[in-house]
Amino acid sequence: MLPLVLILGVSVDTAQKWERAFSKKEQKLIQTPRNLVDEVWISRPPLELNPIVVHSPQFSGRSVADKLKDLRENLVQEKARGILITTLDEVAWLYNIRGTDVSYCPIVFAFAVVTLSSAFLYVDQRKLSSEVASNSI
């Protein structure tokens, strides 16, 4: 029987690299049907619903539209159709938003998908004011 290694929350590219490396040691990755941390951490406190604020171009230096334009130019150069942005500080930078979802760090739990023709910000809508919603388009 092969020894098993359980890995959670890694990219497809990383998982494939690990699969190749582990197979040399007769090990393999197994996808779990649920997050095992959630199974163990039963007393986890609920996430707070702190409001998102717009970080003015006066302080950020550039508008969201300008940043999206430059990002799309880079996508064309790289012959890519889109990008998934999951790093919280990069999402905050791209959309000129700030929050208090993490203590002592002005970020928001969110991710973004940008294609050559559209941009999507995925965030809990209860955190959005009309100002934030209109700025993020």
From TrEMBL:
<dbReference type="InterPro" id="IPR029149">
    <property type="entry name" value="Creatin/AminoP/Spt16_N"/>
</dbReference>
<dbReference type="InterPro" id="IPR050422">
    <property type="entry name" value="X-Pro_aminopeptidase_P"/>
</dbReference>
<protein>
    <submittedName>
        <fullName>Aminopeptidase P1-like</fullName>
    </submittedName>
</protein>
<dbReference type="Pfam" id="PF16189">
    <property type="entry name" value="Creatinase_N_2"/>
</dbReference>
